[in-house]
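lol so apparently i was supposed to do this last week
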Amino acid sequence: MGTTAKRLLAWFDHVQRDLPWRRSRDPWAIWVSEIMLQQTRVEAVREPYKRFMAKYPTPRAFAKASDDEVMVAWRGLGYYRRARLLRDGALRVADEHRDTVPSDLEQLSALPGVGPYTLGAIASIAFGHCEPAVDGNVERVVSRHRGFDAPIGTGPARRAIREVVLGWMSQDRPGDFNQALMELGAIVCKPTSPSCGECPIAKDCVAKRKGLTDQLPVKKAPRQAVEVSSRAIVVQKAGEALGYRIPADQPNAGQIELPGPGVLHDCDPDDLKAAILKHFGASVTVGEAVASIRHAITHHRITMTAHAATVRRIGRLQWFSLGSDTPWTTPSRKVFRQSRTLDA
Ligand code: SF4
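anyway here it is w/ iron/sulfur cluster bound
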């Protein structure tokens, strides 16, 4: 085992956080936790993870979940697309691998929703393969430690970082090694003000030696945020509201949205009635604005104004319960709260 791996593992054994998924080597549990942890804080994952594993302890159990059940299981975590991909992957494992997550790298990487990072995490932690798991934390640690100035996320940076991780990797404990590197990025080599004094691999860190920790890693120029407006209507009756299920090819697919001319489209309030008729075949009378909320989708910063409305013909719209089991989008829930349709 190389010096870097030895230092990292000794440090990890000493400081690692007690997280529910670290108590398991079950590949399904590891798969679930790794998907949940993508773009989500560890603390936000603890409770949803426990709830999820109690309800869906095997791939087959989750494979049978309906779209609505997937949304409910994933509530609080956001980025629902990854949940549906996990369900698709679970279905494949249940059907083609007798409900056993395959240990073979090729079979694992062929599963829906298993990209290079997830592959590395499951393969190393559950099966002991020497496969790097490079997430944003690892990219930051390696870029700083080796003084890489290629923007992270680009092909050259990805290849260089993978090579370094492979060179450092412990052959005896690849899963712990990957987790140690991620943990170092999460709690010591943080995005701002890294705690180099507590770092087990500070001795030969290029960024520390050259005083470049606040300049590395180099990031790609962020996409400019675009301000847009949209409009929707709120039609309700006894604990239900009119909505539609977002189609598969759109952001937040499968969730329920308030009717409007489209998430990124505005229209004059006077034209809203015609837009609802055109999009959903529904005949409505549009009233006063009852809520104005802000939300973001990718680089769009959206202000959505919702109008109270009454309906004569619902067309392709449907009535959905306002209860917590209906996967209303976050913007819709914000509208309900602001217009006092929901208490929570
Ligand atoms: S010494 Fe500092 S910059 Fe270098 S890897 Fe450690 S925490 Fe990150």
